[in-house]
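Ticket #4471: structure export looks truncated?
Reporter: QA, pipeline team
Priority: medium

Steps to reproduce: submit the single chain below to the structure queue and open the exported record.
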Amino acid sequence: NTTPFVYGTPFANLPVGIKVSGVWYKNDKPNDVLEKISTKLLNKITLEPVTGKLNAGDYVVKPEIILKGITNGITNFESNYEVDPAQVVNSALTVTKAPLTVTANANTIEYGSANPLTPYSATITGFVSDEDVSSSGVGGAPVYTTNATITSPVSGSPYKITPALGTLISSNYSFNSFVDGDITMTKAPLTVKANPVTRLYGD
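Actual output as written to the record:
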């Protein structure tokens, strides 16, 4: 039996349990009879063994059981028991996407302008297995809205930048959390120019 497995969790922590049932002779216990219980992870489509990092998706978990041979020189459990292949039931394992957080970076905008001084951007956090934006396969970009307008007063700063999914996409990560950033309205520069005048010589 298995429980959901989040992308990036160490393979050794694969949450799989095996239940063995049958008719044990007299005082035989499962631990007396079973030499080894292990599992093999298979690709759900090809049924080929899977090793290394598990990408998000669905897999098949196949139990493998080895019976003990001669124990204490008396009982040969391997002769008394057999594993019926028809009774070896595979289980399903689902590797879910790891969640990421998208946080809008702070920015500034000049009073009267519709665009910030630098393009909107965001910081994405929550990567696993030493991955980052460039190595994780994350593609696309978020979109941004702000409650600042071209006539918003400087005194009302900071205003909010709100990121959203946009075209962000990933096969192993989900974008579950979006955090606002601040945008500061700065004063628009003015130019003071003296007007030309005429003055009579001698005045």
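Status: closed, not a bug. The export was complete when the record was re-opened. Leaving a note from the reviewer for reference: The helical segments are 30-33, 77-80.
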